[in-house]
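Late entry, iron/sulfur cluster complex.
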Amino acid sequence: MKEIDVTRVTETVERLCIEANTDLGEDVENAFRTMAETEVSPTGKEVLGLLLENAAIARREKMPICQDTGLAVVFMEIGQEVHFTNGDLEAAIHEGVRRGYQKGYLRKSTCHPFTRKNIGDNTPAIIHYKMVPGDNVSITIEPKGGGSENMSRVVMLTPSEGIEGIKAYVIQRVRESGPNPCPPIVVGVGIGGTFERAAFLAKKATLRPIGTKNPDPELEALEKEIHEAVNRLGIGPAGLGGKTTALAVHIEMMPCHIASLPLAVNIQCHAGRHKKATL
Amino acid sequence: MSREITLQTPLSDSDTTPLRIGDRVLLSGIVYTARDAAHKRLVDLMDSGKPLPFDLKGAVIYYVGPAPAPPGKPIGSAGPTTSYRMDAFAPRLIAAGLKGMIGKGARADTVIEAIKTFKAIYFGAIGGSGALIAQSIVASEIIAYEDLGPEAIRRLEVRNLPLFVVNDTYGGDLYKEGVEKYAE
Ligand code: SF4
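Prediction complete; structure with ligand written out below:
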């Protein structure tokens, strides 16, 4: 058994909130560069150049890539041999978010759903726990902005709609989202499970580094097909027209009920921010 | 192709009518920030005949809720928010003199109509490029609704803020026409 003091969790969450918001992943920047080479729209090319410049400024000035520093989505993978000491784990995670958003000059975006009054410290975080074998704890922070989250959907297709129905729905969702989710986007797709699991799978799919392959050859082919189709929509960088609408399409799938075909589309904007640490 | 044009606020018809969709604009002068909550309050003030916290005539509103300013900087990251949430209020403000809006995403037909009728202009800023945009903001001051936090109304002094013309005074819409051009 390994003991982990929850104050270490707080410190790590604090650091990851700031890093994720100011230091864009290499995979995203590389994707901007590759897509800029093939983008045919001059405005689109220009926008991709500005996004690279933006990422460089953010890193240099330690300034958020985007002012919408999101709700803090936290993925915890907890080894079953771990024993947390010195307090409440969940409270420690929220405290890390509170401190990170304060110290990093990040925007606080949580509010009361009815009165819209700002909570003031960006808590509560959205926390997902998974128990895994071993004695490690891995923490991933994905700040998720409102613009792209608002364009996301869960739908219960009928099984007869099948794979064609899935393709059509995802492409239509990207078309209808247009410029709102800050393209070029990453399209996270969750297929199967139940209503809420499909949504979780779609969110998890957005975490996969751009440029990595889906281990399932059938899904890999489906990702490629949908990716090409959405890039034919013409939306382009910032929605101003062009070929680079999506940087990637990522799919996660699991079995579902014989009567259902749950499908979730979680749109991730070009500010595809996430950072991970292991304790 | 796209031209680069420099503009200074406040804007008048002679500034807005030469603009065409796709033009790249570098805007300097004063812009006011407001999001949905602030828009609601502005329209409530207009309904009750009370004065607004700033003069709408020729004004430009930027749809943004900036991140807090780090020490030594006038403002934090400050990219545009999605404009459709302001669509219910924008035609009222345009009719009362508002000349320019800066945001991201498509506008409702009612807004596009008001832009045409009153020779206003809608600029798109690049969503998610808040660190870059912050470099063009030289001063920032909260002038109303401090209680709204990031949604308070700020008076920003901008220098060469990089923008694209999305809806022009002739009914043009870059989101529609740009996308149609590249759709297969
Ligand atoms: S959708 Fe993403 S990039 Fe665009 S404003 Fe929101 S968080 Fe920023």
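The pocket of iron/sulfur cluster is lined by residues A 66, 68, 70, 145-148, 181-182, 269-271; B 79, 127-128 (CB under 6 Å). Will revisit in the morning.
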